[in-house]
């Protein structure tokens, strides 16, 4: 009978956030796959967990995942942990989970800390709809493409950033998004936890003179739906009403339906469009 994969969340700072269930599971499995065994041994020692570890990280995630799947097919239970937080979130664990599903191995997740969710709940920004981008790509073209997508994103945006790249990222966000509201979070769950509601522009001014320290979670306000609607209306205003009508009738709409859509696009009543066309 095949074993199982357990995704065990670990604390992002405060060891008190380790759940009893995760501790018991790490003690009971046959093997722990850890992102950095040198870092994880401190956690295991703190909770007196003696289970053997093997490394599983970004640079061996494919071949090591195959090996771990073989171990589970032979009946061994494996727990996956990351340096901090929930495995498979911005983490090579997603590869192992996918391979387990392909092999028919059962996977379960033990909920716990996740920096992105912790920061989002602390941000004071909208939490009903959000998107998580983790670290922006290092490739310039890919990075520019993602930033361009985020320009029109109306959901709250959650990003990760290292201290030595923070200023560059803030500058890029300001150039592309403008000075939206931003909450900067660092040292989450730790003694010197910092949650700073500010704006992208003000944060950039601050960190151009102050050295960033620690890993950051940036929670950025999405573009308001009202703003997007106004921009669309402004764009349509550059077109004459006749051209606007032709845009829709050329796509096969009848005149009545086209007038209704033109009025909606321009933020006016259908009667106004009808009266204008009638006068022409």
Describe the structure.
The chain has 280 residues and is an alpha/beta fold. It has 3 domains: 4-113, Tetrapyrrole methylase, N-terminal domain (Cobalt-precorrin-4 Transmethylase, domain 1, 3-Layer(aba) Sandwich); 116-223, Tetrapyrrole methylase, C-terminal domain (Methyltransferase, Cobalt-precorrin-4 Transmethylase, Domain 2); 226-279, no CATH class. The chain has 12 helices and 10 strands. The protein has helices at residues 20-28, 37-46, 61-73, 93-103, 115-122, 140-151, 166-177, 200-207, 225-237, 241-249, 255-266, 270-279; strands spanning 4-8, 31-34, 53-55, 78-81, 106-110, 130-135, 156-161, 181-186, 194-199, 216-220. A 5-stranded parallel beta sheet has the order 3-2-4-1-5, sandwiched between helices. Strands 6-7-10-8-9 form a 5-stranded mixed beta sheet. Strand 8 (181-186) and strand 9 form a beta hairpin. Helix 3 packs parallel to helix 4 (93-103), helix 10 (241-249) packs across helix 11 (255-266) and helix 11 (255-266) crosses helix 12. The chain is elongated and about 85 Å long. It starts with a strand and ends with a helix. 29% of the residues are buried. The model has no long low-confidence stretch (mean pLDDT 90).
Ordered list of secondary-structure elements with their pairings:
Blueprint: E1 4-8, H1 20-28, E2 31-34, H2 37-46, E3 53-55, H3 61-73, E4 78-81, H4 93-103, E5 106-110, H5 115-122, E6 130-135, H6 140-151, E7 156-161, H7 166-177, E8 181-186, E9 194-199, H8 200-207, E10 216-220, H9 225-237, H10 241-249, H11 255-266, H12 270-279
Parallel strand pairs: 1-4, 1-5, 2-3, 2-4, 6-7
Antiparallel strand pairs: 7-10, 8-9, 8-10
Helix pairs in contact: 3-4, 6-7, 7-8, 10-11, 11-12
